[in-house]
């Protein structure tokens, strides 16, 4: 059963959460950086977002990375299909080689018998 919280208790709990998660310090640092900018950006929200992403080490070229990753996955899939085909070809060639070996042994034994009979 959950304990009833007053609005003030909820606010205080949320404030502690933001503080312990580092959100308050990240937002504060982003706002300080914005304040210290000589030339203020037109879109403060995007500036703050970008600053927080830098603090977190988030790459701002993420869409390109996602696209590159998708291309690599497609290439990997293609390589896997090619690998599967090549393995099948190896199996077939191995069977052919084995059949040719057996045929060669048979022909050599016939040739030996023929030369022994002469």
Describe this structure in words.
The protein is rod-shaped, with a radius of gyration of 36 Å. The protein has 118 residues and is mainly alpha-helical. Helix 2 packs across helix 3.
Topology at a glance:
Blueprint: H1 7-21, H2 23-36, H3 44-56, H4 62-117
Low-pLDDT windows of residues: none
Secondary structure tally, helices: 4
Sheet with the most strands? Answer: none
SSE order? HHHH
**Helix/strand structural class:** mainly alpha
Terminal CA distance reads: 104 Å
Average pLDDT score: 89
Oligomer: single chain
Q: Approximately how much beta-strand content do the residues carry?
A: under 5%
Number of separate strands: 0
Q: What is the CA-based Rg, rounded?
A: 36 Å
Bin the helical content: over 70%
Shape: rod-shaped
């Amino acid at each position: 059963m959950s304990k009833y919280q007053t609005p003030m208790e909820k606010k205080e709990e949320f404030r502690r959460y933001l503080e312990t998660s580092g959100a308050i310090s990240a937002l504060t640092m982003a706002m300080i950086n914005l304040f210290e900018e000589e030339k203020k950006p037109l879109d403060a929200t995007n500036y703050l977002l970008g600053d927080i992403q830098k603090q977190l080490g988030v790459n701002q070229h993420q869409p390109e990375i996602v696209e590159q990753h998708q291309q690599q996955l497609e290439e990997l899939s293609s390589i896997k299909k090619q690998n599967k085909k090549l393995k099948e070809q190896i199996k077939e060639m191995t069977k052919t080689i084995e059949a040719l070996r057996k045929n060669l042994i048979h022909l050599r034994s016939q040739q030996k018998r023929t030369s022994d009979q002469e």
